[in-house]
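Troubleshooting log. The previous structure file for this entry was overwritten by mistake, so regenerating from the original sequence record. Sequence copied from the archived sheet and checked twice against the printout by T.R.
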Amino acid sequence: MTEEEKMRQGLLYDANYDEELLAERRRCKELCFEYNRLSPAREDERRALIRRLLGRTGRRFEINAPFWCDYGRNVEIGENFYANHNCVILDGAKVVFGDNVFVGPNCGFYTAGHPLDAGLRGRGLEYAKPITVGDNVWIGAGVSVLPGVTIGSGTVILPGTILRGRTVIGKTFGLLWDGRERDMPHLKVRHVPSCVDCRRIAGVGGFGLLYM
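Regenerated output below.
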């Protein structure tokens, strides 16, 4: 079984030293680099380059530079897709966006994960799990979407949220820091009054804020 076949099946694979995967990523990074250097006024060239880069696009889309991805061919965007500046998609597995998806600045979609075992991680092994985003989804600024997450149609993700291992359907999810949830009673959110509530993630050995 090739390393790419392992990657596609969600198995541990050699991401750092396999020549075929390295060559694919180099090609993708060159296209991203070219795209990010284009003037915003050169709209036709920009769209043509994104169509070369991604696996599937709708007729109407807008991706503000800079934009980066690993392979490109694993990314599919629906009709009327919009991504603001600094969107990063690590697409070792499929990342599929539906129609009318709006992505705020500084968002990341990360299908890639690494073993917790330092020895395996040091050998360059990783895995990839797909990410799916439905129709009519709004993802606020600074959101991180981790491997294997599905976001259902009609969902709004508040800025700064980290999504991990969860299917989110038709609700508003996220973290509020300033106590204003009373002003938005329709939102279904997790309220974090201060950063001192950052908690240890049991069994993982890391720190951070997660919506799980």
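The longest helix spans residues 19-37. Archived copy saved in two places this time.
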